[in-house]
Amino acid sequence: MKSTARVKDAPRNQEWLLTLLPIFPLVLLVMRLWYASRQDTQTLLLLLQNISPLGLLSAVLLTTLWVLPALILGGRVLGTLYWISTGRSSWLVRAAERLPGWVVALAVVVGLFTWQLRFLPTLAMLSLTVLGLTVRDRFPRNEGLWAVVCYALPVTVAVLSYIVLWPAIGTAFAAHDVATSLLLTLPQGLAVLLTGPVPRVPARGLTHGIAAAMAVLTPFLVGAVVMKAPILPLMALQLSEDERPRVLVGYLVASDDQMSTVLGRDGVVSFVRNDRLESKVLCPDFGEVPRTWANLYGWYVEQSVVSWLAPAPPPTPVDPRCQGRPKD
Fold first, then answer.
1. CATH of domain 234-284
2. Residue 53, pLDDT above cutoff 80
3. Any residues with CB less than 8 A from the CB of 158 and at least 6 apart, and which?
4. Which alpha helices (DSSP H) does the chain contain, by range?
5. DSSP string, 85-121
6. CB 97 within 8 A of CB 6
7. Residue 2 phi, psi (nearest 5)
8. Inter-residue contact 247 to 80 (CB < 8 Å)
């Protein structure tokens, strides 16, 4: 059946959906500032007055870089799987059909560079599943090509993946890290089982249920990541006092010739006169504490390809002022 048969009954006059696209990022930005202000309206207005929108948009864009590949590949897999299993069209099939091949390929490349090491087997599983289902759809009578793409290729990739990832897999099992162990071992082994149709009766509930769950949970996942993204530089200011110096650690909101405005990590806003300022230092962003030390030749499973390949800064001792202690 030609691909046009799948999209001929596509609904029209849905351009109004495009107007909703800017709303979600704007809501995330406002919620991020609301979270940083500890739900205080006056602090929120102060942040809105001084924070650059580019800093807020960068957090949303960086999050989108790793969310979009999952949505594109997941939608393509579910839509094509439902089509070859039932031969019937639906909104999911139409959405998958409207994703060009170059968009899917670009999603794989973006995911390869932005996803963490522990998620790369899942990326390989999705990529092989998309390829296998596409071959079954485009070449319905070429069983020889099916055998190569749908069976031989996933098995080969799985074997090579286990060989390459074995040091990280062994470390994860030795550390009793169940989640990382499953992420490094299961996806590539399941790829060979996902390149064929599913029974016709549960196909709609399975594919459309997963797609609906993705649509509902993705905004909450993106929001949770953006809520923790830094939007202001973390500074340590050493202030002169009558008896001994005092260190104020917080996020620098604004600074001019006379006054510096600092948002403390407890949500309290402090206005510091510059004549009391002895010194200040930019504190490092420690980020999240690693949940596991499993690594592949120094490439930790919580690192992406980009962060692993980027030159690491030389190790320097932590300034005592960043820990709230005055520096002599």
1. 2.30.30.520
2. no
3. 188, 189, 191, 192
4. 4-7, 23-36, 41-50, 53-86, 91-97, 101-114, 120-138, 143-146, 153-174, 178-190, 200-227, 305-309
5. HH----HHHHHHHTS-HHHHHHHHHHHHHHSBGGGHH
6. yes
7. -70, 155
8. no
Residue with tokens 């495009």: 18
Phi and psi based region of residue 13 (left: phi greater than 0; alpha: psi -120 to 50; beta: remaining): left
pLDDT at 165 over 80: yes
Segment 181-228, tens digit of pLDDT:
999 999 988 888 888 888 888 898 999 999 999 988 888 887 777 777
Among left, alpha and beta (phi > 0; psi -120 to 50; other), residue 39 is left
Pairing of strands 295-296, 246-255: unpaired
Distance set, CA 269 to CA 21, 261, 282 (Å):
34, 7, 18
Amino acid at 127: S
Record the pTM: 0.79
Question: At which residue do the structure tokens 């980027």 appear?
Answer: 310
Can you read off the two tokens belonging to residue 309? 């390949």
Q: Terminus-to-terminus CA distance in the chain, angstroms?
A: 78
Token pair 């087997």 in the structure block, residue = 121
Strands 299-300 and 295-296, bridge-based pairing = antiparallel
How far is Cα 328 from Cα 321, in angstroms, rounded to an integer? 10
Q: Where in the chain is the domain with CATH 2.30.30.520?
A: 234-284
Alpha helices in 175-275 (DSSP H): 178-190, 200-227
